Amino acid sequence: MEVLVIASQKGGAGKTTLAVHLATEAASSRRVLLMDVDPQGSAIEWAQRRGDAAPDVSAIHPATIAREVERARAEGYELVVIDTAPHADSAALQAARLADLVVIPCRPATFDLAAIGATLDLCKLANKQAVVILNAAPIRSRVTTEAAEAVAERGGKVSAVVVHQRVAYQHCLIDGRTAGEFEPNGAAANEITALLADLKSSKSAAPQPEKLTNLKASKPVNTSAKKPVKQKVEVT
């Protein structure tokens, strides 16, 4: 079983949106559990609107993360995605220590870039590999390249895939869907498919910043075509 942790010590980075999209995309071919460790419970609210479709989603108390990960392993899950809370050093560190990979979403904005050092330091403390995802980036703007350079200067590895600011990411969440289900074959769907593939091959060298905004993504998997898996929404 693999554990993917979505972490950012900066609020408003888009962690939950990224978490539900990656978990749903992976659930097209694997048994996935999304753990909502954020007290705000946004992932749980999304799951309640979604109904019985995969992935399974559980609300987890920070103190029980390690135990719940082991329970997921025993229950046969192939991937656990953990959506952590911002400004929660202790809980995020516990989650990071359990991770196979830590994903750090970061908007290409001044305050977000200034704050990313805290999350990178947390990953170093946990001795875990981390990948920074430039999230909610403007389309066709040099600011994305500049942000990638700024992250690299801070010692962060930047994903080749940029997640752009697109209306599909907002509209799809209203009724518990993802961008790939809301607009199959759309640009947002392509980005998530490409991002999951990039994370799977995260051992590859970090790309040059100038290549980041020119990614041609592969055709997405239509998760809506998959037979729904009964969802487990529980609070522990």
From TrEMBL:
* Pfam families membership: CbiA
Q: Which Gene3D superfamilies match?
A: P-loop containing nucleotide triphosphate hydrolases
The protein's matches in InterPro entries, at most eight in alphabetical order, are given as:
CobQ/CobB/MinD/ParA_Nub-bd_dom, DNA_Partitioning_ATPase, McdA, P-loop_NTPase
Residues forming the CobQ/CobB/MinD/ParA nucleotide binding domain are 4-169
Q: Which CDD domains match?
A: ParAB_family (cd02042)
Q: Where is this region: Disordered?
A: 204-236
NCBIfam families listed in its UniProt record = ParA_partition (NF041546)
- What is the name attached to this protein's record? CobQ/CobB/MinD/ParA nucleotide binding domain-containing protein
Q: Which organism is it from?
A: Paracraurococcus ruber
Tell me the lineage of the source organism. Bacteria, Pseudomonadati, Pseudomonadota, Alphaproteobacteria, Acetobacterales
